[in-house]
Amino acid sequence: MTPRVKRMREKLFNTTPRITAERLVLATEAYKKFAGEAVPIFRAKVVNYIMENMTTLIFDDELIVGTATNAYRGANLHPDFQSSSWYISDIDEFSTRDKDPYYISPEDKEVILETLKYWEGKSMEDLAAQVLPKHIQELEKEDIICVGLKNGVSGETLCDHEKILTVGMRGYIEECQRNIDNTVPESMEDQAKIDFWKACIIQAEGLITYANRMADEAERLAAECTDEKRKQELLTIAENCRVVPEHPPQNFHQALQAIWFVHVYFYIEVCTTACGFGRFDQYMWPFYKKDVIDEKNITREEALELLQCFYLKSCEVYEVRDSWYATSFAGYPMWQILMVGGQTKDGKDATNDLSYLCLEAADQLQTTQPVMAVRVWEGTPEKLIKFGCKMIQEGQANPGFFNDDVGIKIALKKGGTMEEARDWAIVGCVQPAPGGGCADGSPDAGYVNMGKMIEFVLHNGVDPVTGKQLGLKTGDPREFKNIEEFKDALKKQILHHYNLIRIGYNMMQSIHMNRYPVIFASMVTKGCVESGKSVQHGGAKYCTAGMYVTGAANLADSIAAIEKCVFEDKDITMDELIKACDANFEGYERIRQLLLNKPEKFGNNQEHVDSIYKEMMHFIAENVQSWKDARGGHYSFGIDSQTMNIPHGAVVGALPDGRLAGEPLCDAASPMMGRDINGPTATVKSVAYIQPEKLEEGALFNLRFDPRGVQGEKGQKIIEGVIKTFFESGGHHIQINVVDNETLKDAQKNPEKYKGLMVRVAGYMAYFTQLDKGAQDAIIYRTAHLA
Amino acid sequence: MSNTTESILVGSLQKFSIEDGPGIRTTIFFKGCPLNCKWCHNPELIDPRQQLIQSPNNCIGCGYCIKVCPNDAVTMDPEEGIVIDRAKCDVCLKCADECYAEALRPVAKPMTIDEILSIVEQDKGFYENTDGGITVSGGEILMHAKFVSKLIDEARKRGMNVCLDTCGFGDSQALMELALKENVTDILYDMKAIDDKVHKEYTGVSNKLIIDNLKMLAADARTLDKLIMRMPLIKRVNDSDDIIKRTGEFYKEIGVKRVNLLPYHSLGVSKKRNVDGFEQEKFEQPTEERLTEIENYFKELDLKVEVLGRA
Fold this sequence. Notes:
- Chain A is α/β, with parallel strands linked by helices and 787 residues long.
- Chain A is 50% helix and 9% strand.
- Chain A contains 32 helices and 16 strands.
- In chain A, the strands form 5 sheets. A 6-stranded mixed sheet of chain A has the order 4-5-6-13-12-16. Chain A has a 4-stranded mixed sheet with strand order 3-9-10-11.
- Chain A starts with a helix and ends with a strand.
- Chain B is of the alpha/beta class and 311 residues long.
- Helices cover 35% and strands 22% of the residues of chain B.
- The A-B interface holds A 589-591, 593-594, 597-598, 605, 678-682, 685, 708-709, 714, 717-718, 720-722, 724-725, 728-729, 785, 787 and B 14-19, 23-24, 60, 62, 64, 100-102, 122-123, 125-126, 128-130, 132, 311.
């Protein structure tokens, strides 16, 4: 790392994220000023007003500029989406809470509280609370399901980076103007399109305005600067900001600046997350090749420094979450995935020198953002995989690996052409979508808690924890004659709850359409300008909405346990099982041991339980994926819990798989913690066996090695062998933590010694010491494979 | 044709074995060994017969084992927990059947070649991607040479390579036959002590046959390169300058090139207690300094050295 990058990295580690008031104040002024306009134009003018007035900040050492707020590592409040009620009630807690804390200065606090008065009852979240059916809200409150879109936009913008770099904002403005000129609005639909295009123009101009204001600021600083070198840098920054994002970039540095301006704009515009960098090594390649390889305008080292400056900017953006969400998505995740490798649109290997540079930049920086992803196929150079494995072996928990074969199959299922499928990229954390910036893969339509589904079946729809009839009446399980009847009851419960999410999410989508079209993110997503519709209206070429599951392994293990111990071997009766679970196995320890040790458990390459797992997940996928959503897209399904397995586990009593009440459920598509006892190869085979290609949102798989098991050159080869075999067996995604229990436990005790210790949580990384104890423990419980 | 109905006692099939030969492997542990090393780390695999083993930490104190034992061999001691009177126990395993907590269980499971290989084969992809395969270990494989021979042949048909792990104390012809098999790629050959007096004292047998068999394998060009010498290192037993020096010279003399060093660990102590109630003598690992000295000594002799299981 250069001294500059070192200083910037140091600053990052030593600064607590903070919430500031500026955007809130500007947005509130604008809301009052522009009320009365058509919704898209109104929203665009609000954002434009912010861009005209927000503080222009250029920090020491920076080469890439642009912030989401008026502070370093600053976070915005978005009271149009999130309820002012918890902003107000939590305001003192933000800085003290153990989950993702934020500092707020006393001055800002005062301004925030004063400004929030205007927002009382006006947010999407407040509205959702009024309109969502009471039954759905009750299930949400009890952590049985959750419905997305209530307090933020769908996010997961995967924009058309290539077009942004080819035509610039000016190109988009011209295209929108042409569309307006060519349309005579004779219908409500046509008028809506014209309003949308006009809004796009306003917001594109807003970003250009901001860039030019940044140029002014850079020139001002340059004039004051006595250090000749920095003065020149500031003048280059100014020049860059005059060119991009308005016009196509002329060099690598400007291309990075253009991508950053667009990216940071997403976070100014709305309350969003999971905006990926897509196939960075592909769309940036022409600029890199020209500057570094062909014309030698800059050296590879200079390109590396610029890239690291860009990476460090990605560490500066946040989405403020309430304390429930901060528990469920722990560790300030932003899911900014940066992909390298894979195939070109015509099926050749896409790896280039920039692919390596991207990994090298991350290898040196070791920050949680951006999250590196390597696409692997048969043509991927050994060297690229080896480099990734070396990073994993060192315990960086980065990159994650993705199987191209499965990615392509899923992108095809989502409607992409073969070319778009080969160009697939991740939206969200692990979900493949057709590439080229044409997919709106809204995440988080919702999650269903499988632990509760089992409890409902065991109690004929009554929640044993609250005693309320919250689930479907599926009959007295004591009357069930075989496991098929039990599974049928489960399937009914499960579908019923996914269907409730569908209803709730469709309602939320409809409100977003009418009130919260996201203009800029739509404009840069392929299909929206063409159709004159925002992503909220289904403007993107391909639209899906992801539904997820917590406790998938607990579900399969519980079914296998009941099948073996109740129906097959008749060791215990259903009645005894229910009593034992209700008592949290107190007084029934022998039954718990039976349930723990006799039946097969998912994750040990045992075909029967693995096939139950597959059957249940495919059942959900086949149903959910046939449902339409409100904007004309369809629902998709994947196995991914984020850290929601912790709050969802907290409300679930003891389960037939031997899990005790309140313990976390399994993590994503990984086996239940501690139940995979046949080593990592068996675990890997089980997770591949579930055929994730059938799940349009994929299957997130965390594997942990004890570092002693994967030392040296041999260890690197072993990691590589595990990844390759996983993919050859049909696996979709794997991320590997190489860290031992002693280190993690010591880090719990002495956090100050482990500030930089990163772990893979879900499709993102977090600093271990910044996680709360529950999330830390859940990671320690993940089996650490040694030998 | 292998006799698929014939079964043998298998202590365990350990997947993701990464210290028993190259790459990712599955190690098959057979039961029965002609040696009785005082530091044995798998003492439950010495007796060729089935045995009952305890895992006291798993015990939940339900007492079902006491109730079902037809020989009154199981009792509950307030201090020690469940105690098995090994003189009364006839290994009927009724207690293990009732022990859901797996605090009492049979050491081994009878398995046919087919049953073994169907599990081993699950990891074929890992073997292929890491130059790994199967390792046959024990106990001592030469006590079951015929079965092992059939198993290796069947593994070959299924496209898997095998590594032998042997103490070398067994029939020379049988050993040679196994060693020559085409899909046997490596042979882990134990060298517990080059000094016969030490060898006899700590393993119960002379090392003459072992050394002769080793010379036989080393003298044959087809098997020499397969050899990996494995030496457990036990402080004050076989880590003296004299023994190390003689070992190195011997290796050079017979031409072996690869050496694994395995510093002693005490995992065998509790297993010994749990399988037959006897206390295993405790040994110590050579110091880290001494280990490095020994490692360097072998390296200076141009041998490829790997120290395994280092903490």
